[in-house]
User: Fold these one by one.
Assistant:
Number 1:
Amino acid sequence: MDNIVYSVWLSEILGVENKTYTKLMDKFDDAYGVYSSEDFDSLQLTDNTINKLKNKDISKALKILDECRNCGIDIIDRSNPLYPKRLLTITTPPYILYVKGKLRDLNDEVCIGVVGTRDMSEVGKIAAANMGYGLAAGGAVVVSGLAQGIDSTAHIGCIKSGGYTVAVLGCGHNKTIRKDNVKLFAKIVETGVVISEFSPSTIAARFTYPQRNRIISGMSQATVVVEANDKSGALITARYAAKQGRSVYAVANNDGVLDYSGGITLLEEGARLIRNADEVLERFELLYPHKIDKLNAIKAINKFTYTETPAAKVNLAPEKVKIEQAKPIRVTEKIIQIKKNQINKEVVKLPPELDDSELGSFEKEVCRQIYNNGSINTDELCIILSSDINKVNMALTMLEISGFIEAAAGGMFLPSTN
């Protein structure tokens, strides 16, 4: 029998954040050793824990293994070479991890946690997308929690950059997804990895998210808080990071101002104020010259930057303005006709999930245009919405990953058929 079943058995007995794992591993080396033993008296465990350890029924563990096999979920424990070794340095490292996707060896990677509020502002959305994009372009792995808001936007920025991202769940893989995050989950599984300390059918609870947060910070050499208020769970992640000896950063806006209460609290607790991804990467460039390229991050952000207003109006660096204006947009007969018909055009029914999604008003307006017109390209959207191409591209990416639209041949975008 595969020894991983005993790791699952032990994990289900002890649960998460339990220091008993360390005592047991010091004596027995692995879960099978624990399962095979009846002698726990020397470990100073509670009677309740000893009674649980003496229950050798593995039927629940076998059921979990079957569920994992059926859902394409792998299980690794601390003995697996792909287990993230940085987690072993925290107070209560997870004993096992449930893994879906392409788990790479993270032990020689620069992993940066990016976290923040679910109820993000437009400024926060821009900052999260740019942070995820810039970190990935500079060679870092982006670690976050797949929650709506800052987390999801950071994942999207990373994916857009072609980077590798790790999503850490506060529940089981089969109990996690809001409808608007299904496609993002699938995309992360395709190009990165989704991990959880919880078995696949574990339902999220208030206490599971702080437990998840210690893994985000524990896997990461640094944690970046993009936007958060004083009560945000992102502050829990940042405080875990500080206790774990990791660096903590708080993101300021383009004027260098920190305008959210949670960030001010973090600065008072010792966090460093930054604006861009390269400021995070610079401290790792000498340690990981084969991985990190700060200059590449700067160049990538200059090309990607998602702004609320055209570049010429927001005092961007010259190269950004040049990139914004480099591609002239041609006014086609189709655009003119769309403009003429917009007032009288019958509105096509939009997906009901759109209203409940984390997407902002601009993304929803882009979605409305696509559904109303059947098919449309980026240039046409820029003119119809009087918007710059970076902002439209970012909106299209978020809509596509959220599953509301589909890319088609010829640079066209269509309503989703799913």
Number 2:
Amino acid sequence: MKKGRHPFQFDTVHEYQIRNGGLQSCVNSRQEYQRHLYGSKTLVTYCKDGEEPRICIPDEMLSRSVKQFKSSCFRVTCQKNKRGWKTYGQLAPREAVLLPWQEIHCDSIGPWKIDLRARNIEFKAMTIIDPATNLIEIQPLLNGIAIEAADVVEDTWIARYPRPVRCITDNGPEFGQEFRDRLEKNLGIKVRSSTARNPQGNPIVERIHQSVGLILRVITPEENPRSFEDGKRVIRRCLATAIHACRCASSGAIGDLSPGALAFHRDMLLDIPMQTDITILTTNRQGMIDRNLLKANAKRVKHDYAVDEKVLKQVSLGLSDKLKPSYTGPYRISTVHTKWNGYDRTQASYL
């Protein structure tokens, strides 16, 4: 019996093995196989105890036909509708921020609604954090436009803390060109947006947003606001409680210290001075980042993308998109960028 290279273990069964019990000597029992007619060929499948199912074919022509069928466009349609969510390629390493007050991450939260008697209050908020100390500031937004976001950064962070060198944002509408011009031209702060080529982004802010949402869901039903002024008071209290909770909570990434203690060199609850070594904390944080990176890459499929290779693009699906395809494409890769482990796909080239 000759084994092929296909993962389904295609075996070639010659004509003399099919005649007069030759197949029985091959599989040891007649109950272990079944004959199926595939065109003019006879396809025989069998399975032994403790082994994977094998497919026996009478000649190599059928093996090539099956491989050609699997590599046809039907396979692409099947892959586009799978829900496996396999991830390919290794994640790029990330460097921990060494010095405090050098970089800030900005992001917006909301909109959130508070139910009143006659109407609802809808509001947004802007989160600013120093990734070295995890010190956070949260300020409500009225309209969520770029000029208002720039005012919040200037009035909330620049007026209270040392001027940073960089500002990392996402691609939200509140961080448009007016926001960028205000910070770069007037304040001398470089604005960088998180894109596919810069996957470092602002992941710390997204985790804090979950804590802020939890506090809002707990305090709002207890206060039960009925007027517009009561709603604004609840919003201010919720955001202040979230800021205090984030500043007092100890974190393993900064040596089991709280962000407030690390930034102000004094405990947030007790009248005790704090003295820390920022270099040791950065080394420990870098080790934690590297360990988490190894765990994440262990779950991903190793693959080096190449030019002219075809890939599928994952689609963001909602709760009502159960019958929609999981991927679009295939697209041909025109350029490979290895700096940030990102890959530029040309969507104009199809199969």
